[in-house]
Amino acid sequence: MQISRSLLSNTTLKAAVVLAAGALALSACTNASETGTGGAATPSGSAKASFDPATVQKDDSLAAMVPAAIKSKGTLTVGSDTSYAPAEFLGNDGQTPVGYDVDLAKAIGATLGLKVQVQTAEFTGILPALGPKYDIGMSSFTINNERLGAVNMVSYFKAGTTWAVQKGNPKKFSLDDVCGKSIGVQTGTVQEDPDLSDRNKKCAAEGKKPIDIVTLKNQTDVTTRLVNGSIDAMAADSPIIGYALTQTNGQLEKLGDVYDAAPQGIAVAKSDTALADVIQKTVTKLIEDGSYKKILEGWGNAEGAITKSEVNPAAAS
Question: Which pairing describes strands 212-216 and 97-98: parallel, antiparallel, or unpaired?
Answer without folding.
Answer: unpaired
